[in-house]
Description:
Elements: H1 2-12, E1 28-31, E2 38-42, H2 47-64, H3 69-85, H4 87-98, H5 102-122, E3 130-131, E4 138-146, E5 150-153, H6 161-172, E6 177-180, H7 186-202, E7 211-213, H8 218-226, E8 232-236, H9 239-252, E9 255-259, E10 264-268, H10 274-286, E11 296-302, H11 306-319, H12 338-353, E12 357-360, E13 363-364, E14 373-374, E15 377-380, E16 396-402, H13 405-413, E17 417-418, E18 420-424, H14 428-435, E19 444-447, E20 459-460, E21 463-464, E22 471-472, E23 481-489
Parallel strand pairs: 5-6, 5-8, 6-7, 8-9, 10-11, 10-18, 11-16, 15-16, 18-19
Antiparallel strand pairs: 1-2, 3-4, 4-23, 12-15, 13-14, 17-21, 20-22
Amino acid sequence: xxxxxxxxxxxxxxxxxxxxxxxxxxxxxxxxxxxxxxxxxxxxxxxxxxxxxxxxxxxxxxxxxxxxxxxxxxxxxxxxxxxxxxxxxxxxxxxxxxxxxxxxxxxxxxxxxxxxxxxxxxxxxxxxxxxxxxxxxxxxxxxxxxxxxxxxxxxxxxxxxxxxxxxxxxxxxxxxxxxxxxxxxxxxxxxxxxxxxxxxxxxxxxxxxxxxxxxxxxxxxxxxxxxxxxxxxxxxxxxxxxxxxxxxxxxxxxxxxxxxxxxxxxxxxxxxxxxxxxxxxxxxxxxxxxxxxxxxxxxxxxxxxxxxxxxxxxxxxxxxxxxxxxxxxxxxxxxxxxxxxxxxxxxxxxxxxxxxxxxxxxxxxxxxxxxxxxxxxxxxxxxxxxxxxxxxxxxxxxxxxxxxxxxxxxxxxxxxxxxxxxxxxxxxxxxxxxxxxxxxxxxxxxxxxxxxxxxxxxxxxxxxxxxxxxxxxxxxxxxxxxxxxxxxxxxxxxxxxxxxxxxx
Length: 504
Ligand code: UN1
């Protein structure tokens, strides 16, 4: 078995260049969560390597910022075409290395294609404003310029899409990119990045320092974040990691773009379409084995529905197919590793000790002792407390009854994170209240769909301990550019703003 998953990766990507382990440092061992087998051993970047990559990016910036944006868009267009042509292999690689089911692996690759297309269109739409000047014969403008090298730190759970959200935009905005993928999913990064290298070669673009992947652990990430050449750090991962990145960025006056944890909630009201709601809830709660930052973790159910909902959810959870993510029919793949399983186990124990009723959540022996398959857990809480107010990156759905809609919104907003939220309702007053200034305080607030599975066209990110950053669609591109306000005097006199007189 150990041999077979590694050889599947080789068959899928026979020409993939992997960094060779070096005698002076330990190799990075990449394992498949499917059976715990080793997929590859990779050489890791040293601090000196990171320094060199960042310096090269700084040099590449000087040329890339002068390339017209629509031409920069061409590079991203070809990347998107290559990704589309290889969608199936890339999707399989994600499943092999990260463990999400193939449907979701393919969905992730589709997000890469979608953001490339978005970025190509954007490359002709990096618009600024013209603003009325208060002075005669004056013009006021806003212009947008490339910012500088962008560091992208991505997490294991979306090993391709998160880079693409950032890189596609950063590149058309005129910035070199340096990618530090999770040490759990470097192969996905290398396979996707190889397509950018190919695209650049075909376009006659010397890639040089324009884009690079840094394989390594936390220390490689820290060197990258602290390097003076890097102007924007886009980091996806835990709140703890984001807090450190944010502090380094603040001390060095770099831009942070933080996309951190979530403790996402949904409110299930009496007027909801129950069948639709239960499907949406299940997809959001057990999809990706609960390892999306947008995973549904808390469900507030109107007390009139509570008994029905718990019976129906228990039936769904009992039979939801857990297994090999590459097998047709599986809906829940393995957790990423032992640590993740132990985190889930400890959290469920803590919930039990608080008096919660825990259904399921047990480990399922499937592919040996080094893989961690679990049946997703339902946890009935009388009130929202303890681990329910924390993010455990595993498939645990807490349920809590509510009485008034105002209480449900207050419970939604009581979490420290503020990423995603949903209401299931047929009542327009409830829907609009949830979306209003006094409603959900999250970056994503949905009606009659789940908390996960956002489209790339909208800005993605959240408030509070989620970090405040916005990536992907809408005007998130503005993060990757510097704005200049220009005042132009085309008259022959010098009137001062605010009516100030200053005669010399
Ligand atoms: C993440 O889990 O870090 O909205 C990103 C979603 C996906 C992205 C999740 N489009 O669930």
